[in-house]
Design a protein that fits this description.
225 residues; mainly alpha; two-stranded antiparallel sheet; 4 strands; 58% helix; binds zinc ion
């Protein structure tokens, strides 16, 4: 009797998970690219067939890191569409899902970086999210809490940061409404306001510092005279 292809494929796919706990109880995260490559490897014996015996595209979604799925749904609006079993359609859907999942991965990295830079870094570390993206569920919870509290975008007042600071210290605008009319102008005005305030504070501090120094210098000058 021929081997049961469906069972074989199911078993092979069941082992391919993007986020899993290893034998030592450590949580392991595979990048989207690695995860995709492993799925493609698992389905190799069936790629030549007209139809796949199981819905691989569906498996790709269900075995994805659950912490990535909200980002994935954003990047892949057709995520609820059921892909027919025809291998060509399955492979096309998998390729589209790969691209969307990679975008999702990037977006999550960015929002994690935003949360880390915006929050008290130490508190974030203590909560266990030591590496952005690795402890994803923790990071997402922290971001969700943080969003609720006091995050207001300079441009649209939404619960996110107007911009994100990159590792090289430059800023990149990340507001999703940045191209809507008036939003950039509002953010620019807000940033200018903050800069003015900061400068005012710095000027006052500088003046106080100078006054103190002058006071210290004066008696000396008198004594030396
Ligand atoms: Zn915004």
């Amino acid at each position: 009797m021929a081997p049961n292809y469906t069972d074989q494929l199911k078993a092979a796919l069941e082992h391919v998970k993007q986020l899993f706990t290893d034998s030592e109880g450590k949580e392991v995260y595979r990048s989207v690219q690695v995860y995709y490559t492993q799925i493609i490897a698992a389905i190799q014996p069936f790629v030549g067939k007209r139809d796949f015996p199981v819905n691989v595209a569906k498996k790709f979604k269900s075995n994805m890191d659950p912490g990535l799925s909200s980002f994935f749904k954003q990047a892949y609006p057709q995520h609820t569409t059921v892909v027919p079993l025809e291998s060509g359609l399955q492979l096309a859907a998998l390729r589209a899902m790969l691209a969307a999942a990679q975008k999702a991965e990037e977006n999550r990295k960015m929002i994690s970086a935003t949360a880390i830079s915006a929050m008290n870094t130490q508190a974030f570390m203590l909560q266990g999210a030591s590496t952005a993206g690795v402890n994803a569920s923790q990071a997402e919870r922290t971001i969700a809490d943080f969003k609720k509290k006091d995050l207001a975008c300079f441009g649209c007042d939404g619960p996110h940061m107007w911009s994100t600071q990159k590792p090289d210290k430059s800023y990149v605008v990340t507001c999703p409404s940045k191209d809507k009319p008036g939003v950039r102008e509002k953010a620019d005005a807000k940033i200018a306001e903050i800069c003015t305030k900061r400068k005012g504070r710095k000027d006052r501090e500088d003046k106080r510092k100078k006054d103190r120094e002058d006071k210290r210098k004066k008696p000396k000058a008198t004594a030396n005279a």
